[in-house]
Input
Amino acid sequence: MNKKGLRPWLVVSAKELSEISPFAWVIPFTSTIRDYPLVLNWETLVPTSQTNETLLVQQLTCVDIQARKIEFVEHVTIPQQVNELIHAILGE
Output
C-alpha cells in the first residue's frame, strides 16, 4: 500500500554531507502517536516547531534528497535527546 501525500522529515546529517553528496540522514515524522522508546513527541521536545507530530527515531535512514521533491519548512536545533538516540542506534 502506498501512502499518499507528503510527509515531514527531520534532516539530522551535517550540512557538509549535502555539500559533497546528494544524500542526507533523515528521520520521518508520523501523525500516529506511538509509545515506544525510540519514538518521541516532537511537540513536547520542540514546542515552537511548526511540525507537531511524532518523530520515529528508529527509522533513521539515508535518502537522496536530489531525487525527491522536497520543501524546506523550518530550521530547528536538533534536541540532545534525539542526538543521543541516534548515537545509540549507530552503536557509538
